[in-house]
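Consider the following input, taken from an annotated entry for Rap1a immunity protein domain-containing protein (Bradyrhizobium jicamae).
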Amino acid sequence: MTPVGSIRRIVAALLALMTMAVIARAQDFNDYPTSARVEYVFGCLKANGETRQAIEQCSCSIDVVASLLPYERYITAETVLSMSQVRGDMGSPFRTSEQAAGALNELRRAQAEAEVRCF
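Applying the prediction step yields:
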């Protein structure tokens, strides 16, 4: 094999490794399922008007939230938010526990950052 052929193989291998690393990083960043992103955007659109600009802003918003908050913690916070609206003893732990408050605060911080960046 010629030196040029060896260099080409090395460059091709390096490019393949770099591509795999970028894809792996993108998958880490994009761990939210499409359905969760769509639900967030639909709710955001209802709150901010159903305009083309709102679609762009709401799409940006979920991207920011996803970059700051892993999906598992997002689901925890969404569950706390939903269950805290249940009346009586069933919803009480979700309204009063320190763990629930922490999950909600984490989501609210991510949403505040998204508001600053996207709206």
